[in-house]
Design brief:
The protein has a single domain (about 5-245), classed as Jelly Rolls (Sandwich), CATH 2.60.120.620. Helix content is about 15%, strand content about 30%. It has two helices and 17 strands. Strands 1, 5, 6, 7, 11, 12, 15 and 17 form an eight-stranded antiparallel sheet that branches. It is globular, with a radius of gyration of 18 Å.
């Protein structure tokens, strides 16, 4: 059992920097739409919102939905785009290193993925329960080879989950996840990052909504194997920046 389940920095990024990232992200999403690129966030197993999935799972657990037909439910409703700008890494990676040390994890991290800029619109933008990776040897990212790998591409032609063409992350696992709240506090309601600490805790402590990161520019770092969700946005728009940091699997 880890001592610190997450580490956060309140208002770490300035208002100006947050607005710069939001402008960059929204502009990129708009440009991609003009080019006919699908900006809807996809999921493993095609569990995103679609014409044949019209019921939101919200932040309900599988236990909550045990008597339901899960084929009718979607677990994600948001738009995304991706950044690789060096200046954003320069701003944020030092915070991850501090969190990794101060939280006592001290995980061996040697690379990172692209930043995911995410937009949750109201009413109902959300991301249901999931973890970012189990971080063990079964979760190692594999090389995708067109015409050889016996796994279908995503509906938009993207590489399927668990595979990559990026040599820097092949053979590694996600160990730490980072989320930054880019919007001013009070500009949206709902949309909280929520954790599930697991079954083996006192019932009234199993779930926790992390309101510490509501102030603009606040960021949170946590082990990627922890189950979490983003509760439905009720009003306004929630913009966030997400990053995954990788290393060799836990033994």
């Amino acid at each position: 059992m880890i001592k610190n389940k997450y580490w956060f920095f309140k208002s770490a990024l300035s208002k100006q920097l947050c607005e710069k990232i939001i402008t960059l992200g929204l502009g990129k999403i708009q440009l991609e739409k003009q080019k006919g690129i699908n900006t809807k966030a996809l999921t493993f197993g095609s569990m995103e919102k679609s014409l044949d999935k019209n019921l939101s799972s919200k932040d309900n657990t599988l236990q909550d939905l045990k008597d339901k037909n899960l084929n009718n439910y979607y677990i994600r409703d948001s738009e995304v785009t991706w950044f690789n700008d060096t200046w954003i890494y320069d701003e944020i990676i030092p915070y991850v290193n501090i969190a990794n040390t101060n939280a006592g994890w001290k995980y061996n991290i040697d690379t990172f993925e692209s930043f995911q800029f995410t937009v949750y619109n109201s009413p109902g933008g959300f991301y249901g329960w999931h973890n970012d990776m189990d971080s063990d040897h079964n979760s190692i990212i594999k090389r995708y080879i067109y015409g050889i790998t016996e796994v279908e591409l995503k509906k938009d032609g993207g590489i399927p989950a668990g595979y990559s063409k990026n040599n820097d992350i092949i053979g590694k696992v996600r160990k730490l996840s980072l989320t930054i709240n880019l919007n001013p506090e009070g500009s949206y309601t709902g949309g909280n990052l929520k954790f599930d600490w697991g079954r083996h805790v006192r019932t009234n402590e199993q779930y926790y909504e992390c309101t510490e990161i509501r102030p603009q520019g606040s960021m949170i770092v946590f082990p990627s194997f922890l189950y979490h969700c983003v509760t439905p946005v009720l009003t306004g728009t929630r913009c966030s920046l997400v990053l995954w940091l990788l290393g060799r699997h836990f033994k």
